[in-house]
């Protein structure tokens, strides 16, 4: 506080204490960072470079303290100074540089990479504004800018010595070398600077400290007379974005491709800066000899967002290093691997060829050449089959020519993985079957995981202490050890301890809920939690319809037997996603009515917690009894919230989708509430022609509840304000089979209700969930990547 902040403890507020604590922790972090970099440099080891447009880091203080083994010491030291660590940790803003699962997965993965001593760098964008802050006003979502760096970020280090310059726009000149060979030269219309900020990533145990390197865009003074003279200057300038805007804001659309020019520029900007950074480091060790590049460097593409890195590396190898095409392709295609996170057609990225031509003219040429050579391969396998060619081509012909980034990624990568068994199987079977036929080894699975350091040790200290007391304290590194808890599942004393902790966590959350919403909830009630981005396929509206059905049952029969239940939601909707916002509004309107209807005697409460984010998840997850994982089968690639909740002793009500299937395999069918159509049944239903009206007319409860939405019961003075939901489920064709799954869902909920009534049974099931989650540590995911794809060796740090 004295040396870094220039302030005095007598006048320090919580924020100053927070900053001062960071400063003293950072000294330890930086010392290990230096040792790690030295060790990696001298061992000249192969390293993975995780390219991701999103890293959803959350807060770093608690994580860094736990991983350094300094949490208790710091807490004690601060206590001696009259300061409460928990309070000052609340001063830290979330680093919300991501939308949801994909961004959080990247954050868990870099934690595990450092923990397992693998040489790794995370590369991404240094957004000035992360995901928007969500306010709820009169029940509706309002977006406000997130300003996470307003008071500085004590963890990051600015590295002006590693600035990169990136080209955009302009034109390509074709030249001829003395030997007659064609040489292409890109004359850019604009240069922007990339300034790197390093966030240290502290591995558990505090030895390896890797970095997350995030690029900020800046204007460069460069003015391109060349382009000016060629007459292209004005054209290029017309839609030129200001350099600084490139890293201004994270696009808030998860699972939909926005098609915006600035987004493409963001993707190219961080991919190109990162590649230059990697190449600079490679050349320092290997000079101009490219022979060892793909032995030293592996680049993992987190979805197709950084896929433009593939033609960028080709451009560098061909135009700059002057390698021939085959040599360049050999290097490039041994360097990249690609992770697919979705099968939703609207989420598969495509860019208009004309946009690429304007922004990255040379890259478009290279993409055409990659495609041309690939089409020859296709022709050799399926001679004369134009349909297959059309399907596999990187270029989609149509009224507007589009570049398919998924196809480019599969063709340009040596490995492609899905994120859960079923998802990877569907990637092979439905998304890329011909690619799988061409390269039978290329497509594979790596099931997602979560870091148990953040998602159990740090966020649930009570349960962590109990577990350590029973099985020792190396479970954060060896999560499979949790299996030892299995033998306590029937032990009455352990059950009591376990459920007492759950209750205490619920009491804590109830306080937060009261402070955040003014709603009082009963910690003895079931805490039923659905936390994830708002999306039709995730079916928050299925949950809502069921809540309304319970409400009706209680009104019709005041003696209706059920365990009191609090339904808790947390979800952000993409700002342009109308129906998603309508669903948030509906949840809030139903909540308003239900929470104030005294006839219910508090049997049901509904809470929508605003501004769901990593730090709020850390408070909700330890307090959850039920985990809602209710996506339409075949739509949720994996899910990771499902793993976090189960690890903390919540029971899943879920469909046979994504990683739910593997969770069910681990915990056993008797410890999870599975319901609903399977992937095959959804397919069948579609084939035979799905008609939601069948369910509407057949099931009285469905009809009553949907018709209820159409009245002004939940929106006094605003009749019909919730009609869009009913409309989408009937006239809209109910694309996500909400009505088809309703009855089965309702039964699963009934089973859960009955199970909760049996305290000992519930405790046993909850314990077994925690005990059997070992598989889902992100350490296991990383080991899978290392063995199947990256082929890395750990590198010890002193
Ligand atoms: C999620 N995808 C999957 N996408 O939906 C989830 N998309 O099943 C999976 O567990 C998780 O990835 C990790 O594999 C996303 O979160 C996005 O956030 C996103 C963002 C921008 C553009 C497209």
TrEMBL record:
It is an enzyme of class 2 (transferase). The keyword Glycosyltransferase applies. Gene3D superfamilies: Glycogen Phosphorylase B. Transmembrane segments: none annotated. The keyword Endoplasmic reticulum does not apply. Keywords: Carbohydrate metabolism, Glycosyltransferase, Pyridoxal phosphate, Transferase. CDD domains: GT35_Glycogen_Phosphorylase (cd04300). It comes from the Bacteria. Its EC number is 2.4.1.1. It catalyses: [(1->4)-alpha-D-glucosyl](n) + phosphate = [(1->4)-alpha-D-glucosyl](n-1) + alpha-D-glucose 1-phosphate. Its cofactor is pyridoxal 5'-phosphate. Belongs to the glycogen phosphorylase family. Phosphorylase is an important allosteric enzyme in carbohydrate metabolism. Enzymes from different sources differ in their regulatory mechanisms and in their natural substrates. However, all known phosphorylases share catalytic and structural properties. Allosteric enzyme that catalyzes the rate-limiting step in glycogen catabolism, the phosphorolytic cleavage of glycogen to produce glucose-1-phosphate, and plays a central role in maintaining cellular and organismal glucose homeostasis. This is Alpha-1,4 glucan phosphorylase. It comes from Paraglaciecola algarum.
């Amino acid at each position: 506080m004295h040396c870094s902040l220039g302030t005095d403890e007598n006048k320090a507020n919580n924020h100053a204490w927070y900053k001062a604590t960071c400063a003293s922790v950072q000294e330890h972090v930086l010392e290990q960072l230096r040792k790690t970099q030295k060790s990696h440099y001298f061992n000249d080891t192969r390293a993975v470079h995780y390219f991701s447009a999103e890293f959803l880091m959350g807060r770093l203080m608690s994580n860094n303290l736990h991983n350094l083994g300094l949490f208790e010491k710091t807490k004690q030291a601060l206590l001696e100074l009259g300061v409460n660590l928990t309070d000052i940790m609340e001063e830290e803003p979330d680093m919300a540089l991501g939308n949801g699962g994909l961004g959080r997965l990247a954050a868990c993965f870099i934690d595990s990479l450092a923990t397992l001593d693998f040489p790794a760098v995370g590369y991404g964008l240094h957004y000035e504004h992360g995901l928007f802050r969500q306010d709820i006003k009169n029940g509706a979502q309002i977006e406000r800018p997130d300003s996470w760096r307003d008071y500085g970020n004590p963890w990051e280090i600015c590295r002006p010595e590693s600035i990169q310059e990136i080209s955009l726009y302009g034109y390509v000149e074709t030249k001829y070398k003395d030997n007659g060979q064609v040489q292409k030269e890109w004359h850019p219309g604009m240069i922007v600077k990339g300034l790197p900020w390093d966030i240290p990533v502290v591995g558990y145990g505090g030895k390896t400290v890797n970095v997350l390197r995030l690029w900020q865009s800046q204007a460069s003074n460069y003015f391109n007379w060349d382009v000016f003279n060629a007459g292209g200057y004005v054209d290029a300038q017309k839609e030129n974005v200001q350099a600084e805007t490139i890293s201004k804001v994270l696009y808030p659309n998860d699972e939909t491709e926005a098609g915006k020019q600035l987004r493409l520029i963001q993707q190219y900007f961080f991919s190109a800066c990162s590649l230059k950074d990697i190449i600079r480091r490679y050349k320092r060790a290997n000079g101009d000899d490219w022979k060892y590049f793909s032995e030293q460097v592996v680049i993992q593409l987190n979805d197709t967002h950084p896929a433009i890195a593939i033609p960028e590396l080709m451009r560098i190898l061909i135009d700059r290093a002057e390698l021939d095409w085959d040599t360049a392709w050999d290097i490039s295609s041994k360097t990249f691997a690609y992770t697919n996170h979705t099968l939703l057609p609207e989420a598969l990225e495509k860019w208009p060829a004309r946009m690429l031509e304007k922004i990255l003219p040379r890259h478009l040429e290279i993409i055409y050449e990659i495609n041309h050579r690939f089409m020859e391969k296709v022709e050799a396998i399926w001679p004369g089959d134009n349909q297959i060619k059309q399907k596999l081509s990187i270029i989609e012909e149509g009224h507007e020519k589009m570049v398919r980034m998924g196809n480019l990624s599969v063709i340009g990568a040596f490995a492609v993985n899905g994120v859960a068994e079923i998802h990877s199987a569907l990637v092979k079977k439905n998304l890329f079957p011909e690619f799988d036929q061409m390269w039978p080894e290329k497509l594979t699975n790596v099931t997602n995981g979560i870091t148990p350091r953040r998602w159990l040790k740090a966020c649930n200290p009570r349960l962590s202490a109990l577990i350590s007391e029973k099985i020792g304290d190396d479970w954060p590194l060896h999560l499979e050890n949790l299996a030892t808890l299995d033998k306590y599942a029937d032990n009455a004393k352990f059950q009591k301890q376990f459920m007492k902790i759950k209750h205490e966590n619920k009491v804590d959350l109830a306080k937060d809920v009261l402070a955040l919403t003014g709603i009082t909830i009963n910690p003895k009630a079931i805490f039923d939690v659905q936390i994830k981005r708002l999306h039709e396929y995730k079916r928050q509206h299925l949950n809502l319809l069921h809540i309304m059905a319970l409400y009706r049952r209680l009104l019709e029969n005041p003696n209706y037997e059920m365990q009191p239940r609090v339904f808790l939601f947390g979800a952000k909707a993409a700002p342009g996603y109308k129906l998603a916002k309508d669903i948030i509004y509906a949840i809030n309107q139903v909540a308003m009515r239900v929470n104030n209807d005294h006839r219910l005697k508090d049997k049901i409460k509904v809470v929508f917690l605003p501004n769901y984010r990593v730090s709020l998840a850390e408070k909700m997850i330890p307090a959850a009894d039920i985990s809602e994982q209710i996506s339409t089968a075949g739509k949720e690639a994996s899910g990771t919230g499902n793993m976090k909740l189960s690890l903390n002793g919540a029971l899943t009500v879920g469909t046979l989708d994504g990683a739910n299937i593997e969770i069910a395999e681990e915990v056993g069918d008797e410890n999870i509430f599975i319901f609903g159509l399977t992937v095959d049944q959804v397919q069948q239903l579609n084939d035979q022609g799905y008609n939601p009206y069948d369910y509407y007319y057949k099931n009285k409860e469905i009809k009553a509840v949907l018709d209820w939405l159409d009245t002004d019961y939940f929106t006094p003075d605003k009749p019909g304000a919730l009609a869009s939901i009913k409309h989408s489920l009937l006239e809209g064709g109910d694309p996500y089979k909400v009505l088809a799954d309703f009855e089965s869902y309702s039964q699963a909920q009934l089973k859960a209700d009955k199970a909760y009534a049996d305290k000992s049974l519930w405790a046993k099931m909850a314990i077994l969930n925690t005990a059997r989650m070992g598989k889902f540590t992100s350490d296991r995911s990383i080991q899978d990547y290392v063995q199947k794809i990256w082929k890395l060796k750990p590198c010890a740090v002193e």
